[in-house]
From TrEMBL:
<dbReference type="Pfam" id="PF02171">
    <property type="entry name" value="Piwi"/>
</dbReference>
<feature type="compositionally biased region" description="Low complexity">
    <location>
        <begin position="37"/>
        <end position="47"/>
    </location>
</feature>
<dbReference type="Pfam" id="PF16486">
    <property type="entry name" value="ArgoN"/>
</dbReference>
<feature type="compositionally biased region" description="Polar residues">
    <location>
        <begin position="65"/>
        <end position="94"/>
    </location>
</feature>
<protein>
    <submittedName>
        <fullName>Protein argonaute 1B-like isoform X4</fullName>
    </submittedName>
</protein>
<dbReference type="InterPro" id="IPR003165">
    <property type="entry name" value="Piwi"/>
</dbReference>
<dbReference type="InterPro" id="IPR032474">
    <property type="entry name" value="Argonaute_N"/>
</dbReference>
<feature type="domain" description="Piwi">
    <location>
        <begin position="605"/>
        <end position="927"/>
    </location>
</feature>
<dbReference type="InterPro" id="IPR032472">
    <property type="entry name" value="ArgoL2"/>
</dbReference>
<dbReference type="InterPro" id="IPR036085">
    <property type="entry name" value="PAZ_dom_sf"/>
</dbReference>
<dbReference type="InterPro" id="IPR012337">
    <property type="entry name" value="RNaseH-like_sf"/>
</dbReference>
<keyword id="KW-0943">RNA-mediated gene silencing</keyword>
<dbReference type="InterPro" id="IPR014811">
    <property type="entry name" value="ArgoL1"/>
</dbReference>
<dbReference type="Pfam" id="PF16488">
    <property type="entry name" value="ArgoL2"/>
</dbReference>
<dbReference type="Pfam" id="PF02170">
    <property type="entry name" value="PAZ"/>
</dbReference>
<dbReference type="Pfam" id="PF16487">
    <property type="entry name" value="ArgoMid"/>
</dbReference>
<comment type="similarity">
    <text>Belongs to the argonaute family. Ago subfamily.</text>
</comment>
Amino acid sequence: MAGRGSGQGRPQPGAERGPTPQSRGSIPRRQFHGSRRGSSGRFSPAGPSQPPAPELHQAMPMAPSQGSAFSIPSHEQQFQQLSIHGEASSSHGISKSMRFPQRPGIGITGSKCVVKANHFFAELPNKDLHQYDVSITPEVKRREVNRAVMRQLVNLYRMSQLGGRLPAYDGQKSLFTAGPLPFSSKSFDIVLNEEEDGGGGGGGGGGGGQRAFKVVIKFAARVNLHHLELFLAGRLTETATPQDAIRVLDIVLRELPSARYLPVGRYFYSPDLGRRHSLGEGLETFRGFYQSIRPTQMGLSLNIDMSSSAFIEPLPVIDFVTQLLNKDVSARPLSDADRVKIKKALRGVKIEVTHRGNMRRKYRIAGLTTQATRELTFPVDDRGTRKSVVQYFQETYGFNIQHTTLPCLQVGNQKRQNYLPMEVCKIIEGQKYYKKLNEKQISALLNVTCQHPQDRERDIIQTVHHNAYHNDQYAREFGIRISPSLALVDARILPAPRLKYHDTGRERDVLPRVGQWNMMNKKVINGGRVSYWACINFSRNVRNGVAHRFCQELAQMCQISGMDFAPDPILPLLSSQPEQVERALNERYSDAMKMLKPQGKELELLIAILPDNNGPLYGELKRICETDLGLISQCCLTKHVCKTGKQQYLANVALKINVKVGGRNTVLVDALMRRMPLVSDLPTIIFGADVTHPHPGEESSPSIAAVVASQDWPEVTKYAVLVGAQSHGQELIQDLFTEQKDLRGGTITGGMIKELLLSFYQATNQKPLRIIFYRDGVSEGQFFQVLVHEVQAIRKACESLEPNYQPLITFVVVQKRHHTRLFANNHADHRSIDRSGNILPGTVVDTKICHPTEFDFYLCSHAGVKGTSRPAHYHVLLDENGFTADQLQSLTNNLCYTYARCTRSVSIVPPAYYAHLAAFRARFYLLADTSDNGSTTNGASGRGARSPRGHGTAAAPASPAPVKPLPALKENVKKVMFFC
């Protein structure tokens, strides 16, 4: 919470001095609970002609009595009555007829350069494409079986019944040909052997013999490539991308890799594409590649990128279980926890039996028996005679079961259970592992996937050559030709912005070099005050003396950085076991409040020292501090506490602490000097939003939405946040705007946008006339739905504050989960790369590989650290503010230098980054109660945590399933960037 400080708060040269609200930079002291629509407030005819400039000052905590002078309803009335000259109006509606903004031209700012992109030009075929519907009976859901059926059909009938055509098949319901088949409808009878259909079916008896299928192929439509040609040339007047034509070409180019490799979505993996690496607990990596055909300015391009993913090792099941549990399973009986872990890991896994010689029948594991193998019996005749599994295997196969204390694997279905001892089963190769990896496995996988840019570029080129698209019989059949060379793309390197620090430091501003700078000789622009703090040591490997010295060093670094930080804690350091986290936190907080409450003070910060491998401790600590105690915390790992030469670490922690207690670290000089186009001229609020989804297998967990909004115009550095739970997998943010009926029949409005707009007004005494919204986590297929739902919610929130209040909106999707990579044109030219071998920060591309007509660009705003940098992709879905390419690209790049947690530019724009951090943090609030008990709600869920409503689905449910609300954030936590 910012307040007037002593001596350090001089306004900067050139900045107009103006009134500064005491609550500047904070979010509301009380949660806004909604307002009745139809309030009588209106804009008055007079008002300031120029918004006041900010005063730079030392951040100080507000006294408890402050901030209570204005209730939220009074702020809403003031919001309605506030008069602003030149009010902009947005009256555009969103309808299905609208198009996304067209590119306003190519940017010219920055130094020109050339980069290579992992896009390969694809020549549009000149063929007459036909689509046919495919029906296979009996119906099989698995694509590999369908593909096996179609391969057999083509092998048998291509030169006769199919007229020599080589069709491309999507594995489901559609077949495509380059020219018509000699029939409009025809049926075929196909027989597959067990090995051909993939074996192991749906969990049944493991095959044996043959399977018969009836295939009906029926003409459906002709595929119009002319529309695609017009679209690529920018001459198509229709709103939608001709996805049908692009999909056909994508299916054609996937046909051969699908037969050669293991297809997983748009990826292809094989044990032969690179060295395997163990991930531990029975998992290993397969090397593979991503492939997708995309419409771009240069025409169609084939996007190829390298990938590694987790697969189950093809081990004997006994060996897999031994690795999974990390112990000798024959030494002692399994515990209940062991059984649960084995069952989770093996359910759905395909295995083959090894006790029948060459007859390797295949099965899919359904579960484990509750009894040990030696206790299992089954009926052998109608008279109820039973035989033990051990006896059966010895008599029938001459196989003596050794691990009789282990459970058997259950295969088959509920009606006819089959029991297989683990030691006669082996896991089949090539099964992707979809469940959640542990931290060690994630670290090992990242080490495998992390490639130097030059190595990644080489592997991509080798993959293209290995796939030999020029010899691909399907590509030739359809007339598709792929260039073997990476695309050369014109790019520009945007200049880094100058950053302002406090005048009391020896260096008052800095110009970052290659995306980096440091805090040496600098002080934060607004230093927070921490007068009352405490420390708890949860690490057995850190002695109290070491912990005490660390806290002293950290306090000293906070002071050096420009904070008003008390040198000593108010209570002696406390040591506690990780298992006692709740008790330790409550006791320490209670002891502190006994000392401080009589003085009208509060404990302001907790420093917690954690073990390096702390399991649930971190999340539990954050949940208790932020939703129970209202306490800001900073966690430090043992490895950092104990190491020597930790000045850089301490400096970074000091930056985090400063913003957590209400300070600001740096601001853009251009923001202070009012030189930011379409930001400095009118009060502007910048939003960031993200939705995170649970891991696969966590179907009972909700998705978490987070929205942040800037609170300190014109600097746009400090952000407020709201988080909420919503239906599992739901991508649309459900609580941007809410309406409820009150007891008198009126309508009460609320929601994230309204609350954040009000908090902006409280902090700045300005009504936002421009909204810039950076939305993370949206795939291309969800663009229109997200735009319609979320922009409509923004407009309703504005309208609920004041009739005809319609600030201009620019809505930009931020994408990181794409597969475009940019490489230096000459890796030997050290002027064109950073120390990691990546392209320079600030590199922007808006030509050749971008959308044919729409407003998008790739921006690599950060310096590489390890591996190949991934540029962020920004796609504008709505632009009522009329940004030029240079204006939006420069704004986005400059904001990437204002990230609070480090002295580096970051890879995505900070408001989107903060939203992701907040959503990730909020998931910890769920972990304490995973049961289905407790109240559910579709309404407000408490202060700071919005009401409930990833892979997400964009369709807004008509009636969302009730979701348990998140615990409410405490008021003093809401006011600051606690998630940093």
